[in-house]
Predict the structure.
Amino acid sequence: MIKQIKIDTDYITLGQFLKVAEVIQTGGMAKWFLSEYDVFVNGEQDQRRGRKLRSGDEIEIQSFGRFVVS
């Protein structure tokens, strides 16, 4: 099942996304989380918490599921 994450702006950073998607509790956990877990954005692995995600981007995190920004 793909979970939809709605945003009201042009983009959201990967670090902000992790918090909004309730994968992490605080924004400060983003750097640690990205170093410990494989995160794929549109099929490519990415560990940059500043990566800009826009509507239509798909994020997959093993053990957490698949998400799409809308």
